[in-house]
Structure of DUF4283 domain-containing protein:
Amino acid sequence: MESSDLINSIADKTSSIVFSDKDDPPAEEQNPYSHFPIIAKILCDKPINSKALKSTLTKSWGIPSNTDTNQIEPNTVAFLLEKEEDRTCILRNNPWSFRGNLSVLQPWLLEKALVDVDLKKFQIWVQVSGLPVKLINRKVVEKNWKQYWKVHLHRPCH
């Protein structure tokens, strides 16, 4: 086939292509199981068993045991939830633990890259009873929190 015949053949095959000036990207096919992901990072010095983590947390959270999960790195797993209500409930009842180790949970908004999910910060409620009145202030808590964390909360896995 000569080059002019090849060009004419390609032109004939592409003549039905319609171009658009719209800036909108094509509609993506949505996977119902990945709309509401949560990233869970277990604060533990040793690698954890991701299957045991999935089993324990799905039971604790009351979500289906066949929920899809993906291990992102050691001690970090993405749970791909079917329902937004499940994610809302799980995050509202935060913090959660796995075998005595704190889990940091963050929603993964699909418009963000995974590296943009901040797993270094979390909120936690602390109640301390029996303190003298003069020690009940923010300055004392902030000064002593890091020392308390190292001694009492950051334990290795069992």
User: Anything to note?
Assistant: The beta strands are 36-42, 68-73, 76-81, 96-98, 101-107. Confidence is low (pLDDT under 50) at residues 151-158. The first strand starts at residue 36 and ends at 42.
